[in-house]
Amino acid sequence: MKLDEIITADEKLRLARLIFNNTFNQLANELPQMPRTFAKPVTKTINAKVKPRVPKRAPMAPVPKPLPKAKPLPQTLTQIKHQQQKGQEDFADAVKKRFDKDAVKMPKSLQTLPGNIISPIGGGDPELNKKLNQARKDYERQNSDYGSISRFPE
C-alpha cells in the first residue's frame, strides 16, 4: 500500500501509530528478561563522634583604592578680585578691633563720645530740640481734657 492511496490525515496518523507500536513491541520482546533486584538500604552504625563542621568564611573583598584628588580649577578674574577685597576687609577689621581694644584701656575721660549721644552741656541739635518741644505741647493738649498735670516742665 502506498501512502498516496491514503486520502485523509486521520488515516495517515493511524498508519504511523501502527508502525511505531509494532516496531517497539518487537524490540521489547527481543530483550532478555532479567530479574529485577531492589537495592537494600545500607545502614551504618556510627561509633565515632562526628565533629560539627564550621562553615567557611566568605572571602573578603579587597579594600578599594582611594579616588585621586581633584585638581583645583583655575580662578576667574572676578574670584581673584573678590578674594583680594575680602583680604583687605579682613585686614581693616583686624586693625579696627585692635584700636577698639586700645580705646577700652584708655580712661573714660579721654575717650570720645559716640556721635548719637546729645551733650548734656547744651551743644545739642537745635532742630531736634524744637521737635521735642512740639511733641511735649501736643501731648499736653491731648491730655488737658482729663485734667492732667504737665509732666514736662520747661
Could you walk me through the main structural features you see in this protein, from its secondary elements to its overall organization?
The chain has helices at 9-30, 77-105, 126-143. It is mostly helical and 154 residues long. The longest helix is centred in the middle third of the chain and has 29 residues, at 77-105.
Short description:
The chain has 154 residues and is an all-alpha fold. 45% of the residues lie in helices and 0% in strands.
What tags apply to this protein structure?
0% strand; 154 residues; mainly alpha; 3 helices
Structural class: mainly alpha
Number of helices: 3
Q: Could you state the order of secondary-structure elements as H and E?
A: HHH
Strand fraction: under 5%
Mean pLDDT: 76
Topology of helices and strands:
Blueprint: H1 9-30, H2 77-105, H3 126-143
